[in-house]
Here is the input.
Amino acid sequence: MASTMEKIVSLCKRRGFIFQSSEIYGGLKASYDYGPLGVELKKNIKETWWSDMVHCRNDIVGLDCSIVMHPDVWKASGHLAGFSDPLVDCKNCKERFRADQAPRTEAGTEVEFREGGKSSGSKLKGVVDKRGYVCPVCGCPDLSAERQFNLMFRTSIGPVDPLQEIADAAGELADLDMKGRMKKLHEIVARSAVYLRPETAQGMFVNFKNILDSSRVKPPFGIAQVGKSYRNEITTSNLTFRTCEFEQMEMEYFVKPGEDEQWYDYWRNTRLSWYVKLGLSQDKLRLRDHKQSELAHYAKACADIEYYFPFENQDGEGEWGELEGIANRTDYDLKKHSGFTGKDLSYFDPETKERYIPYVIEPAAGADRAALAFLCDAFDEEIVPTAKGGEEVRTVLRFHPKIAPVKVAVFPLVKRDGMPEKSQAIMDDLLSTGINCFYDHGGAIGRRYRRQDEAGTPYCLTVDSQTIEDDTVTIRDRDTMQQERIPMNGVVEIMKKRIGN
Ligand code: ATP
Here is the structure.
């Protein structure tokens, strides 16, 4: 029987939520495209985040930065030197994986695995070395040394072609030993190298002074941004959970040193309740505080908001996965950028006459992971009676109306007797208010309801023969499947109220 995750992946493709990128070319590892329903879901999540973080408050302003920034930004932030994962190759099955994500097995343990990682391969034995992990695919402990691999995508800017420059330097390179050759190659590449940003946060730090000078903000205040980030992830799996291109929703909140702990607590709680408010099951959400040993060297505290995804681990159980990190980054980033640029990134408080470099509390969320969590949480199957007295499985996505891709579907019961015209009039009213609605006149009414259940549409309006007589329509609730009659001319107001527009 298909696992829950397999069913969700299949539903995503079948109904146009998520497709594999470049599928007709065989796909590209860990790249996905959002179809008509998926793009609405993700857009609703991003818009709700923006509304709650920027529009509904007067202490946070927005920003939209370039994806390619000055390369020194990444030197200052530490990404060029430190944003790397330890990579290991399995000598048995040739899988390349991240050492920090490999299954832990106590050093000295004797383990069994199959030759070449194939189920038909003969059984072999090995002993786990002091690193204490084995290959995640075949369980073999015979592994290469760990190599640091930078996760940033590098490209080049300007009319210079680094390949041409390398070709021009071929003679000089040939005279150098390996170390010298690598150094020279790095120098050539670095002349035109730029990077796709691996996070949006640095944009907020490097624009801190621009915003202070232009926007009449004073600590405590925040700068928010939603945008694409890129990481050359090695281990990718579970649909859009870990991809090389993804969207982040990040906010840097600048506070007076000494007030950072209270703001850190505030943002931990505020951000956790945001997911609950939008319908994520509370029992599948947790805040996990990082242990001291897990903390980045500059962070004073950090907690992850995690969701219990239905990804199956080796024991057939789900897995906790990070949706968002909330960190107290202290004054590290502003100090670093100030040091690299020589620019003063302090704040002068005209009232208290104090000058200080603000501390930063950062809630950093991923729009794609949030969309995946909302999809997984909304997914439900239930046995319902059919019209003919039998039973069938009803697949339903129980999205909160605020993030549901389509808010309401309109059906004429039959394609005659004035019903399509009445339905179209309702559609026109709804469309003119910007409520995303869908018209469907094809097939039996029961099937049309099921199609909308699978898309997560909270309400269906049906125009029937009684509508022609008294201008009322039925409204069917996705979750309860209950129907009631409402006046046709009140449809827009009722829908606005129910979907919270
Ligand atoms: P992880 O530990 O899972 O690699 P991270 O701690 O490196 O994540 P952050 O740098 O804190 O992630 O980024 C903030 C958020 O951005 C994450 O909580 C996640 O929602 C999202 N994110 C990070 N990397 C990816 C990715 N490769 N694919 C999809 N979303 C991502």
Summary: The CA atoms of residues 77 and 354 lie 27 Å apart. Residues 199, 231, 233, 242-243, 246, 248, 322-325, 364-366, 368-369 surround adenosine-5'-triphosphate (CB under 6 Å). The chain has three domains: 35-66+200-376, 84-150, 406-499. The mean pLDDT is 93.
